[in-house]
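Same chain as my last thread, 73 residues:
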Amino acid sequence: MPFASTVAVNRSVSANRGSYMGLNGISFSMAFVTSPLIGTFIAQNYGFNNLWIFNCIMIAIASIGFYFVMKKM
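reply #2:
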């Protein structure tokens, strides 16, 4: 979470820093609301092994995304 906040602050200018941080906060809030719903749905319907596979895939996608975002900075 601190890493994403740092990226948001570094990509903004002082005039719109609040907007960037607000969007950052909204995205984390949405993740905290939707991830338990999606996780329990996958575990209930497809099993815990598939939940772990899904989580690993999502972590890989997020890591690749952060790599490209940091590369542009």
